[in-house]
Write a structure and sequence with these properties.
The complex is a heterodimer of chains A (103) and B (125). With 103 residues, chain A is mainly α. Chain A contains four helices and no strands. In chain B, helix 1 (3-14) packs antiparallel against helix 2 (20-44), helix 1 packs parallel to helix 3 and helix 4 runs antiparallel to helix 5 (99-124). The chains are: A mainly alpha (103), B mainly alpha (125).
Chain lengths: 103, 125
């Protein structure tokens, strides 16, 4: 029962954080400066997720298979522009390296 | 709306192909996959002792890497990504939790706007 309440509460919280901005700004064109700033948010956030995931998979700096998998993934990303091929290429590289004994 | 479907849809918009149907499709796809894999995970999750051994923690970063290229078509996008990635790496070593992503994302995107304003001011002077 308590877990159910937590689920409902979190559903409300996650809905409100998304909906309030849309409700506030969705009706009219957002101000020009805000719009120009928002265009830089995707590359900034995506890079902020990707770089630490490659270089600090356990919270500290390490040059392991994660890095090389990401490098191979970046090559796939550049060639195919496809998230799916990037995942497949990077995962293939990761498992190949594990098979070869790279830790 | 989930991070992944939002990123997918916004990348389509950036390529000039985005529309609300694609956005809805991405969201429905994520919700279906989320629900079913949540169920599978609840039933079988304990049989996989350490998911990181199979590199499963790499799947989402790789997917985001695939989407990132869409935003690197112009020079300011590249500068923003490099600055934000560097800051996030530094933050990963210094900040607790995932705060590095928020901080680097805000500073990196702010830098993009700043560069744009400086460039515009330079042109007008």
């Amino acid at each position: 029962m308590e877990k159910l309440l937590i689920f409902i509460g979190m559903a409300g919280a996650t809905f409100l954080t998304r909906y309030t901005l849309i409700a506030a700004l969705g009706q009219q064109e957002p101000p020009s400066r805000l719009r120009r700033w928002l265009r830089y948010v995707p590359p900034a956030i995506l890079a902020a997720i990707v770089v630490p995931a490659a270089l600090t998979p356990q919270g500290h700096l390490e040059l392991g298979p994660h890095v090389w998998a990401m490098v191979v993934g970046a090559a796939f990303a550049g060639r195919t522009r496809s998230a799916l091929w990037t995942i497949l290429g990077g995962m293939a590289a990761f498992h190949l390296l594990r098979l070869l004994g790279v830790q | 709306m989930a991070d992944e479907s939002y990123a997918l849809a916004i990348a389509e918009y950036e390529r000039g192909r985005g529309n609300h149907r694609y956005f809805l499709g991405a969201n429905v796809g994520v919700y279906l996959a989320w629900g079913t894999s949540g169920l599978v995970g609840a039933l079988l999750g304990t049989t996989i002792p350490d998911p990181t051994r199979y590199g499963l923690d790499l799947v989402f970063p790789l997917g985001f890497l695939g989407l990132l290229t869409t935003f690197l078509e112009n020079r300011s996008g590249v500068i923003v990504a490099l600055a934000s990635g560097g800051l996030a790496l530094l933050g990963a070593l210094l900040l607790p939790g995932k705060w590095n992503i928020i901080v680097a994302g805000l500073l990196g995107s702010g830098l993009g706007l700043l560069l744009e304003e400086v460039k515009a001011a330079w042109k007008n002077s």
